[in-house]
Structure prediction request, 379 residues.
Amino acid sequence: MKTKITDLFKIKYPIILPGMSWISVPELVAAVSNAGGLGYLATGPLTPEMTRESIRRIRQLTDKPFGAGCTLLMPGARENAEVLIEEKVPVINISLGRGEDIIERVHQYGGKVISTVTTEKHALAAEKAGADALQVTGHEAAAHGGLATTMVLVPAIVDAVSIPVVAIGGFADGRGLAAALALGAEGIGMGTRLSMTKESPVHQDTIQKQLESGILDTLYSNRFDGLNCRVLKTPAASRAIRRGMSLPRAIIAGPRIAREMNLPFFKLMLGMIAQGPKTMMTLAHMATAFDKIQAATEGDLKNGVQLIGQCQGIIHDVPSVEEVIKRTVDEALKIQKAMGVKLEGKTGGTSKPAAAKKAAPKAKAAPKAKAKKAVSKKK
Prediction:
């Protein structure tokens, strides 16, 4: 499969693993890259030293191109970006901040930069700043999807810019890849789908809960981590959103937040204060959400909160990364041929993805839920 994204990033298939904290670890990143896609390392929870170690670990596991994410709003992000540049990471994904200086330095060693955006305004600004591509995140996505749905956001931005677009939000199989290409995108991100694979570090209990959940079993609010954010619908998530964040609570939680982010307390507070009151509250939200996100990834859904996309409701199994990518591409190609037949006015149709062709047995752990296929992997 050949698109502008496969050419730009020198990969076989236009499928990306976004940088998801505590999920997009070296092993999963390398598995995606080895299977022909492009994996991003999540650097949000990492110190510069941990980031450097993770990059070198990825290079031990794969000789294929890979990337790394950098959320510029977060304290410590600039230091991590410095490491990514020193290590000459092939692709850097920047989000939530202006990155002209980073883009310029990445281009100096021949690297590429893809900017995450959720609006046409931000897309145009990223293109003007020199980004090589855009990661357009629609409403259906896990975590920080935009207010507009993927179906309308992607073509709107494709029309507005001249650089390639990767669509994210609602993609879990070949139907999604074929649809994204039809909308004008040059590739897709599949965070939720790839987080539910054999190589994923997400705990079996959390994956099982996601398998049992439908497309409507998510919550979307700006009261969890300070930005509009989609999470798995659980009692813990509802409590976290209801509680929200206040400035006194943020100050009290400061020392713990600094420890979790591996930053000196004074540096964390100075960085937050320098951003202004509004951004300071957003950072306080994001920092206090860290432990809940990590807990959910490790299987604690009584206290943790899992970031998840609506496409969890069309995922029915836990295959290998290689199988996910291969069948996604195979299905997309089959659908494209079938659509050609339909558009020519002949009889023909698309088929369901391989994983959806047979009904899954009920999950023993959740008799009241509409269960899908039980997880077979161990943690």
In short: The CA atoms of residues 236 and 303 lie 6 Å apart.
